[in-house]
């Protein structure tokens, strides 16, 4: 059950607390594990050479992602408010300025913008559950699978419909609150997600090409690694851990005082990374078994995988399981993306959670229409960034609305938010405050302080400079 008191005379969360350490780990893991792990990680690993990229990605997660996550959680727990209010309160308490609230505000805005296009892709997963279950891909040729995908995303009515359905599911959970909504969902979804992934892994092991998938992922070929690959790995560490957008800070506000931030952060990072690697081990053996392209890009999941599964025994069943898995992962991440903005509305404007969820969800749905139509009626509306349209590594066209929002949030807003959050925790907050939250001044605390003050900011700056250059 949730408690109304933080204990020890410290600031009380207005939204209650997670009922246990495990509930928090499941919630943050659910927020972190999403389309980034199962949809995005396999194809960017394929585009960047496999094993060497994975190794760099793991270093980025430990040396940069982990200290940023710990910084977000400790700020959230110390402030016990939404990200905007927590940054403002702690800025004053630490003798700095309330203007740090703008960092929290940027995180809230980033979450809104990310969910506006994330929900569009998440809606595709719902459509593909139905397609897989009905046997559309059984024995289908590459041309048929490609035509099915093209016809679907080209129909704005269908894309908007599934976007609407997904946002409705997300609003429903967030409106129910921390205990009855967020916690109940993740207690079921995260274990179910892992079970489904293990079932698919067992199926992938029967493909006859599991060893080839293992070698691709875990035998580094540094000749295929480029500087751009390193930057992609660093940027993806932010995206996949849901850091820099206020979600982890908001969840940290509900964390009980006696729960170790270091221990829970380690558990979340380990679970998130494990699921990303398992997803890749599911996908690549199937791709190799069917002589398909590992560097297919975003179409790897929605075109290449249905084609591969459709040629194998029991393909319709396992394809359905895969897209159910993808839907679960997207749903748990979406509620994390939406929570900071909802908490802000509740606290700032004294609205109920249901009212706030409908207000923020409605705004996100409306913004998402632009991304949904980027694949059809607005596909010719292109501007600003350059994108690779055919997976050959050459930036050969201007980006759609979807591409630009993705680039702005993933490459600029998240790294900038992570940089400022880490600088705040490492340099603005006094040693006593951070040591109090992280449990003393032992080896783990010293390592965090070194990484948060020096290593992580430098790494993040490299990503930012590359993004704007």
- Spatial strand arrangement across the major sheet: 1-2
Number of distinct helices? 18
Largest sheet: 2 strands, antiparallel
Q: What's the structural domain tally?
A: 1
Rounded to an integer in angstroms, the radius of gyration calculated over CA atoms is 21 Å
How far do the termini sit from each other? 50 Å
> From N to C, what is the helix and strand string?
HHHHHHHHHHHHHHHEEHHH
Broad CATH class: Mainly Alpha
**What are the low-pLDDT stretches, counting only 5+ consecutive residues below 50?**
1-9
Question: Mean pLDDT across all residues, rounded?
Answer: 89
Strand portion, in percent? under 5%
- Count of extended strands: 2
Q: What class would the helix/strand composition place it in?
A: mainly alpha
Quick tags:
single chain, 469 residues, mainly alpha, Amino acid/polyamine transporter I, two-stranded antiparallel sheet, 74% helix, globular, disordered N terminus
Written description of the protein model:
The protein is mainly α. The chain has one domain (21-468): Amino acid/polyamine transporter I (Up-down Bundle), CATH 1.20.1740. 74% of the residues lie in helices and 2% in strands. The termini are far apart. Mean pLDDT is 89; it is low at 1-9.
